[in-house]
Amino acid sequence: MKAVRFHETGGPEVLRYEDVALPVPGPGQVRVRVAGSAFNPADGGMRGGFLPIPVTLPHVPGYDVSGTVDALGDGVDGLAVGQDVVGFLPMDADGSAAQYVVAPAGALVPAPTRIPLADAAALPSVALTAWQALFEAGGLTAGRRVLVNGAGGPVGGYAVQLAKRAGAHVVATASPRSRAGVVAAGADEVVDHTATSLLDAVSEPVDVLLNLAPISPDAFTALVARVRDGGVVVSTTPRVPTPGDDARGVRAVTVFVHPDAAVLTELVALVDSGDLHVEIARRVPLDELPELHQQADAGEVHGKVVVVPPAV
What we know:
312 residues, alpha/beta, 27% strand
């Protein structure tokens, strides 16, 4: 089969589009014929060797997948050959930047039917991140106010949709390029972070501050003043410590996404009901993945990109 792998860490030039042996599912595993593999910024960090997730070299990147079950390992129940599935794969195992991938059966759920199968790869890890940040870490409920900093990115798009659906008042930051998408996602207020200070724009306190964007430690700490007493600051950017305020009971939580098949099943149901929209910026063929990494390293990738392998 065809796959993209890196045999050593480094720049995009270490990625090779090459022939790889067809993987065989072991006990509790299934083999998936890949329809789509989502590109994530963490893929570049793992390829570059500066994201502390141990992988065995050579490594196939891509931890979001959509596709069709091709073979079952021993002891697998609940999935069938020919079934369309979607899943968040273990990040330390070979991934979905290939024509086939082996995955734990428990990581896969039936794919949404409302959208193209390849596009469903854009759902798992980013939508799970948004869900876990808002509801598990943030405890967001109807009637509360949430500030989503970085709402124009893939996680932010889901966060705005999910928060609005939960009945929250959503204040979101966005650049002029992403403003229309953030408004369409349901934001009640949109702040242009390129032209306005958040401290000046957000005058009414929020219950949850969700940070999804690069931010300086000083700027992040200053924003805590906009969180009401007893609120929570949630962040998905571990390179900058998440600040809180013990004196006012403001908690600080850093979120690292974890697999959750039950929640992913709920998210798929929301897609199929039309209550959650999957936005795709573009689709690229698998052999162009090294070029995509190069573009991402240069800051030229915006929105969610789905990588599509050649037909089998």
